[in-house]
Structure formats: C-alpha cells, structure tokens
Amino acid sequence: MTYPPYPSTSQSGPPLFPGRPMPGWAVALIVATGALVVLALLVLVGFSYVYGKNHEDMRFPSDDVTVSSCRLDATTGRPMAEVRVTSRATRRGTYTVPLVFRDLPAGSVKGAAAGSARNAAAGRSTVVVADLAVGATASRQVTGPVPVLGLPECEIGDVTFLSTAAAASASGS
Question: Is residue 139 a contact partner of residue 101, using CB atoms and an 8 Å limit?
C-alpha cells in the first residue's frame, strides 16, 4: 500500500511562491516594510495623543468677547454695538475687537446665511479694551461709521489679545 505524498511538518506549509524559494532580500523587504508601517502608526497615535493633551485647554481671544446689544441710533441712523469683554486669560492684556456692521433690509432675518438677505457691509469699527485684568469684565460702546436704512447687524471680527504683564510676574514660579 502506498500513501499520498504529505508535506513534511518541518517545512511549515507550502511555499509562498511555488517552484522557487523566496530570496532573502524579499523576506527582508517585507519585514522592513511591515516594521515601518507599525512604526508610522505608533508615531501617528503618539502625536495625536500629545497634540490633544497640549491643546485641550486652548482658548481664543474671541471666546472672551460678545456683542451684548446691536441697535440703531435714533439720532444719527448709524448702528451701535455694545461689546462686552470678560477676560479668561492667564494674565493682564489688551483686547482689540474689530466689528463689522451690516445693513439688513426690512423684513429680513438677523443672522441669515451670507448673501441671502444681506446688503453690503455698513462699515467697520474697532474697539480697544486696554490692560484688562484677569477675570475682569469691561463694556464698550461703538458706533458704525455709516447710517443704515434697515436693521443693523453687528459682527465680531478676528479678536487679538496682547499681554501687558511681564513674563516673570505672569509665571507661576
């Protein structure tokens, strides 16, 4: 009785490329590529973790500024905005708040999508709140440069914050 040819258990299965054994450089290339992929994934996960930890308490100066009222000045017909700044910074500083005034036609809705019911901008003005202490609140009124015919809309631009405290006095050490 003859038995069918079975593979030898010492060869660990059929060859990857039948007919010829895999050259050593090909094995080394596959191992190196696999190692690089694993290393790249580890670096990506590590970077994401560290980036998230470093930026979890990040805040922007615009988070400290709100427009508490936006109305029409009855005398001049120009828009008036009341800007409120509450400092959540870690040191004293000056806030520069640019405002854009818009003239909304009568019957339109405030905050409508850009271009849907807005007329051209009714000018720009800037409010500066100088040397605001940590945790302090300040309110300023600003009037737009041009009269508007419809409803005024007041929009905050890119707020900047410049620290006025010396670095040595602001650090916790």
Answer: no
| Token duo for residue 20 | 């010829």
The per-residue pLDDT for 116 is 46
- Record the tokens describing residue 102, joined without a space: 């818009």
Q: How confident is the model at residue 10 (pLDDT cuts 50, 70, 90)?
A: low
Q: Is the pTM of this model over 0.70?
A: no
Sign of the torsion formed by the C-alpha atoms of 144, 145, 148 and 153: negative
pLDDT in tens, 16-49: 556 666 788 888 999 999 999 999 999 999 898 8
Burial class (CB in 10 A: 0-12, 13-18, 19+), 146: middle
3-class SS letters over the chain: CCCCCCCCHHHCCCCCCCCCCCCHHHHHHHHHHHHHHHHHHHHHHHHHHHHHHHHCCCCCHHHHEEEEEEEECCCCCCEEEEEEEECCCCCCEEEEEEEEEEEECCCCCCCCCCCCCCCCEEEEEEEEEEEECCCCEEEEEEECCCCCCCEEEEEECCCEEEECCCHHHHCCC
Q: How many residues does the chain have?
A: 173
| pLDDT given at position 68 | 94
Q: Token digits for 72?
A: 């029409």
